[in-house]
Amino acid sequence: MPAPEDARLAALRGRVREWGADLRPLALEIDRDPEAIRHHLDLPAVRFLATMGIPAEFGHVPEQIDGHRFRGVTALERTVVMEELACADVGALVASPGPLLAGVAVGLLGDDRQKEWFYGRLLAEPLWTCFALTEPDRGSDAGGLDSSLTPRPGGALLNGEKRYVGNAARARLAVVFARSRPGPLGITAVLLDTDTPGFHAEPLGMLGLRGARISSIVMDDVDIPHENFLGRHLPATRRGVWAFVQTFNALRPGVAAIAVGIARAAWEYVGDHRRTLRAGERHRLDSMGRRIDAARHLVRRAAAAVDARGSDGHTASAAKLRAARLAEEVTLGACEFFGPGARLAHPVLDKLARDARAMEFLEGTGNMQRLNLFQGLLGGKIDRAGADLSA
């Protein structure tokens, strides 16, 4: 059995589970219209997400939970929040405003002025942010980035396209990766207000995770002043590629936790709507529950590893790989408890199955996670037992 959480994290889980009860009734509404989240910005879960990840030194003072303040700056805290809210409704979770990926990147790369500007804007009002790396026909291959920063006096002009960027169509603040010169050290991140002329984002049609407003971006001579270049005070080796690898490492356990939450939601749905089960059905449902518990344990291990050392993202890749597969298998398996027309008769289950499939692509496909996992194996950063965690 997985080791129990400490009292502090258990208190957080209990409170976030209470908050999740407000999100569950919104599931189908946000699936139909992701902008409906704007009518629910005062819900406790959405308020928490709107500032989650902002450090205390920038004025972030969340409410106390059993005598503790949780700011969501550690991977362990984020996994608790992500699982519970994804179990309530992943659509509302990914639709909510907040810093998330962009906030982690600013924390890694930003100077004091940039952090004060970025975090201050988010504390002043709920704002959406986006983290723009992936490009059409390039994926997340840093070596193939085509977006460019062309020098001009006092800054640069940003040109290019991005694809599959969460919340970009409604983001007010963006972190964008582009190329300032050839080679891996030529990748630079910039911080911008999306009101800047030349920046345009449109949502893409999606089957799952509709709340995330996955978008495409076109940037046409977007003016970026030098003071908005992230990492200017850091060595070139700790800016572009290093920064997004560290950002993904930090958030990957949370993405895995989202997949665990989706699987748990489907598992709980069966328990709530099929009160009488045959012996074989009970065995299958119990087996699903054990697999969900095991995946949560792996996610917790991955988060602890990342919190201990930001470059240790290999276990997180194993967790994301296993959890994404689990979410798909459990949601489809849950439909089998309700017969051939389950997805028509149970729209919540249909939504869970669509959302689960999207987890394969969120924050890197399974093949990308396998590459990261086996690079760790070959490099001696994990042993064979660690590599087998994703099986």
From TrEMBL:
**The UniProt record lists the keyword Plastid:** no
UniProt cofactor(s): FAD
Could you tell me which SUPFAM superfamilies the record lists for this protein? Acyl-CoA dehydrogenase C-terminal domain-like, Acyl-CoA dehydrogenase NM domain-like
Domain of life, per lineage? Bacteria
What Gene3D superfamilies has UniProt attached to this entry?
Acyl-CoA dehydrogenase/oxidase, N-terminal domain (1.10.540.10), Butyryl-CoA Dehydrogenase, subunit A, domain 2 (2.40.110.10), Butyryl-CoA Dehydrogenase, subunit A, domain 3 (1.20.140.10)
Acyl-CoA dehydrogenase/oxidase C-terminal domain sequence ranges: 239-377
Which intervals hold domain Acyl-CoA oxidase/dehydrogenase middle? 130-222
The alphabetical list of record keywords is: FAD, Flavoprotein, Oxidoreductase
Name the Pfam families for this protein. Answer: Acyl-CoA_dh_1, Acyl-CoA_dh_M
UniProt keyword Ligase, yes or no = no
What does the sequence similarity comment in the record state about its family? Belongs to the acyl-CoA dehydrogenase family.
**Annotated protein name in UniProt:** Acyl-CoA dehydrogenase family protein
